[in-house]
Amino acid sequence: MKTIFVKPAEVERNWYIIDAKDVTLGKVAVKAAMLLKGKHKACYTPHQEVGDYVIIINAEKAALSANKKKDKMYYEHSGFMGGMKAYNYETLMSKRPTAPMEKAVKGMLSSGPLANQLFRNLKVYAGETHPHVAQQPIAVEV
């Protein structure tokens, strides 16, 4: 087998939109990560950016199972001693409604410079409106 090398100009990029209303947070994140990496394409190569753009709307209305709204914790560290901060899901949603969805998708991407570039292709919005109507995104069911 030979590795496929696709030139950036040859990659066909599409825009996809995912409605997260009443859908489990993890299922939306899995679908978004797959589309961002380009695993659904025949020209997929792990070390190249061949993925698509993904828009997630209604991120604040994503569902969680069981008691995760109170029990699920998110951690941040400033880098200084004693700089650890912990937030539960409800607190983080009140501060930044798109943060849990962004953290879930970022956690499903590999780490490194390529993952940072792929993460820039993700657009998350708390409500139903988004400024990407001109790109004519394709609706994806989860």
Automatic annotation (TrEMBL):
GO terms for biological process: negative regulation of translation; translation. InterPro entries: Ribosomal_uL13, Ribosomal_uL13_bac-type, Ribosomal_uL13_sf. GO terms for cellular component: cytosolic large ribosomal subunit. Keywords: Ribonucleoprotein, Ribosomal protein. Pfam families: Ribosomal_L13. GO terms for molecular function: mRNA binding; structural constituent of ribosome. Part of the 50S ribosomal subunit. HAMAP family: Ribosomal_uL13. Belongs to the universal ribosomal protein uL13 family. This protein is one of the early assembly proteins of the 50S ribosomal subunit, although it is not seen to bind rRNA by itself. It is important during the early stages of 50S assembly. This is Large ribosomal subunit protein uL13. It comes from Thiospirochaeta perfilievii. The gene is rplM.
